[in-house]
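Sequence of Hemoglobin (Lihuaxuella thermophila).
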Amino acid sequence: MHEMTTLYEKIGGAEKVRQLVEAFYPKVQAHPLLKPLFPEQIRPVMEKQYMFLTQFLGGPPLYTEKYGHPMLRARHLPFPITPSRANAWLECMDQAMDEAGITGQEREEFFSRLVIAAHHMINQPEPASE
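Predicted 3D structure, token representation.
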């Protein structure tokens, strides 16, 4: 085995990323804080997420090849992302990782990188309570 194994390879490559995305989006669509941010037609979003996560984990640069630099924060600015929405997104991803069977050290490393990314997307404070 070569020294520079990517996280993408460690978790199981394309098949595992696909499983994760398939497990993730039904959770997002069922979540009261997240559902309003996503279109009814979720497939194109799922495809982008699949391409992005593949690249994010060190796999082929599918996202950049099709859409250019991810520029995550800029691409998410049109959406009101609050701390509670970022946490809800992470919760759904955590459950999806369970479902996809992503475990151990790889999961910890992957999830901690997602936490950083999710917190970077926050662009609004929590709304003032009524």
